[in-house]
Design goal:
single chain, mainly alpha, PCRA, domain 4, Rossmann fold, two-stranded antiparallel ribbon, two-stranded parallel ribbon, 12 helices, hydrolase activity, ATP binding, hydrolase
């Protein structure tokens, strides 16, 4: 359930490039999008030379900003129309599957629009769990699952399991509601205007530090990924590989540090292209990564990548030019 909630936030963050997360939540909870429909969506995406998320969620980044706390909101009513002649329109869907697809598309529109408009992370998370029906399913199981054993587990009944899952989701929401637990003190101080930094603070960094907007969602997800990675480490084994984002590496040092994906469109991200504030923020994060190494620093890039059915030649990151490095 926590992984499902995190997957919803990843879809909200980047609706057009979220295939692994989309596949996880596309029918969670059940919305009539079964394996047959999923296979049809995958096949249509491959035929169109695009990702399944781009095929399914095109137009959802426009963001219909419905009030997230409103009662009786039908997410499907906020979904963009499936245009005649589009790839999505060409997929044969049952009435139930079409309703499920539109419900999900509308939900993503609402949540992405709210996050883009500066909603707090816990608001977006709470709305995802409520409007998707995820929490309602668990609450129903608490009532109807008393005395019913979980398949393969004779010791726990359905109601008890649902209660525990709701408790874990409540804990996740509590964490989301406390940015101080997942944003560094330096970032919070800068966002508040401390130490004379107010004039230099970008809107994105301010939103991130206060747990708002898409920047806040991204920072929360980075924290969630880091915590999950720490929990899965071999207990007591400090000599291990640690995989993390540049942002999550702040304040840490390693004997050997590897930074990968130093290509235009990745670092810096294509979303920052032409945006001075975004480029400045990514350059700052790149510097953070460079200074994590104590003994050795390795920078790498791909000359080409296989994307959407074809090989794409990639240009080196513009951040490499000032370093005056040569290819190894």
């Amino acid at each position: 359930e926590v992984a499902d909630a995190v997957a919803y936030l990843n879809v909200v963050l980047d609706p057009l490039r979220c295939d692994p997360y989309l596949e996880r939540i596309i029918n969670e909870p059940k919305r009539g999008v079964g394996s047959t429909t999923l296979d049809s969506l995958r096949a249509a995406a491959v035929a169109a030379g695009t990702t399944m998320s781009a095929l399914l969620l095109e137009g959802c980044c426009d963001g219909a900003r419905a009030p997230l706390g409103a009662q009786g909101v039908d997410p499907a009513s906020y979904a963009p129309a499936i245009e005649p002649g589009s790839c999505l329109a060409g997929i044969k869907l049952t009435k139930g599957s079409r309703q499920g697809v539109q419900s999900l598309r509308g939900l993503v529109c609402m949540l992405h629009g709210a996050a883009a408009g500066g909603a707090r992370v816990e608001q977006v998370l709470g709305a995802a769990l409520a409007l998707s029906g995820y929490e309602a399913v668990l609450e129903l199981q608490m009532v109807e699952g008393v005395g019913k054993k979980i398949a393969g587990n004779k010791k726990k009944d359905v109601a008890e399991d649902a209660r525990e899952r709701l408790s874990r989701l409540a804990t996740l929401r509590d964490v989301a509601a406390e940015p101080g637990s997942w944003v560094s003190e330096d970032d919070m101080l800068e966002a508040s205007g401390g130490a004379g930094e107010a004039a230099a603070t970008s809107p994105a960094r301010s939103a991130e530090a206060t747990g708002r907007g898409l920047a806040g969602v991204q920072r929360f997800l980075e924290h969630a990924a880091l915590v999950t990675g720490q929990d899965s480490d071999v207990k007591g084994d400090r000599n291990a590989v640690r995989l993390m984002t540049l942002h999550a590496s702040k304040g840490l040092e390693f004997a050997r540090t590897f930074i990968v994906g130093l290509e235009e469109g990745i670092l810096p991200s294509g979303r920052s292209s032409g945006k001075p504030e975004g480029m400045a923020e990514e350059r700052r994060l790149f510097y953070v990564g460079l200074t994590r190494a104590k003994d050795a620093l390795y920078l790498s890039r791909c000359r080409s990548r296989f994307e959407n059915g074809s090989v794409k030649e990639n240009q080196p990151s513009s951040f490499l030019r000032p370093l005056k490095l040569r290819d190894a």
